[in-house]
Amino acid sequence: MPCSDDSRAFALRCRADVVEVQRFVRACASRLGFSTVAAWEVATAASEAATNILKHSHGGTITICADDASRSLGFVAEDCGPGIDNLERAMHDGFSEGLQLGREHSSYGRRGLGAGLAAMQRLMHTFSIESTATGTTVTAKKFSTPPATGR
Length: 151
Ligand SMILES: Nc1ncnc2c1ncn2[C@@H]1O[C@H](COP(=O)(O)OP(=O)(O)OP(=O)(O)O)[C@@H](O)[C@H]1O
Ligand SMILES: [Mg+2]
Description:
This protein is α+β, with helices and mostly antiparallel strands. Helix content is 33%, strand content 27%. Strand 4 (95-96) and strand 5 form a beta hairpin. Helix 1 runs antiparallel to helix 2 (36-56) and helix 2 (36-56) runs antiparallel to helix 4 (116-123). The protein binds adenosine-5'-triphosphate and magnesium ion.
C-alpha cells in the first residue's frame, strides 16, 4: 500500500494505543478532505482491527497509510498471534470466539458481538485478511472520493 510521509506505525499494547490510532486517523482524514462520516468510518475500522489484535492476539502493530496522490487512507494491522481457524466463518456477523452467537447468548462474557471483521469490510473500499497459525494481517483502504469502478 503506498504511504506518504504522514503515515505512521503504532505498537499495540493497551487500549490507550488504540485511542492514539483513532486520533491520528482523524487528523489524516481531515487533511485528505474526507467527509466527517468517511473519517469516522476509517477510524472505526482501524480501531476495530487494533482492538482485535489486543483481544485475540498478544499485541502487534497497525500502520496507518495516508496517500496524498490517490487521496486514500488505510491501514495494515499485523500480529503474530494464534490466527483464525476458519476465516470464512469469522467474517460472518455474529461469529465470535469460535461460536455462532444467537439469542440464547444474553451474556457474551469475553466474547464480542462478532461483527468487527464484517463491519470493517463494509466500512472500507478495499479489504483483505490473511491468517495462519502464526499470525493475522488485515489490510484495508478507503478513498476520500469513492472510486467509480467500485474498487
Ligand atoms: N487478530 C486476530 N487474531 C486471532 N483471531 C482473531 C483476530 N481477529 C479476529 N479473530 C477471530 O475472529 C472472530 C471474529 O472477529 P470479530 O472482530 O468479527 O468479532 P469479535 O472480536 O469476537 O467481536 P466484536 O468485534 O464484535 O467485539 C473473533 O472472535 C476471533 O475468534
Ligand atoms: Mg472484533
